[in-house]
Specification:
The relative contact order is 0.05. 54% of the residues lie in helices and 0% in strands. It contains two helices and no strands. It is elongated, with a radius of gyration of 34 Å.
């Protein structure tokens, strides 16, 4: 580590002070992160409870689109390339 000059040490010290100095910036960030995760989990639980209490809608069946239909007496030609 003796190969570092004075400027290298000053920059390293400045970075350490910015990251860990002050009123516990890192611990404050971790606390905010934990609060965000807890809020996310509670939001997910609320979504699950509202989804389970709501009655599921009956599935709607729609006729297939784009198919040829024939009526009585008519013949539908199919293109069989």
């Amino acid at each position: 580590m003796g190969g570092f000059s004075l400027w290298h040490w000053l920059i390293i010290i400045a970075v350490v002070v910015l990251l860990f100095g002050g009123k516990g910036k890192v611990s404050g960030l971790m606390g905010d992160l934990a609060k965000g995760i807890k809020a996310f989990k509670s939001g997910m639980k609320e979504d699950e409870t509202t989804a389970s209490t709501a009655s599921p809608a009956p599935p709607q069946v729609s006729p297939p689109t784009g198919t040829a239909t024939s009526t009585a007496g008519e013949h539908v030609a199919h293109d069989r390339g």
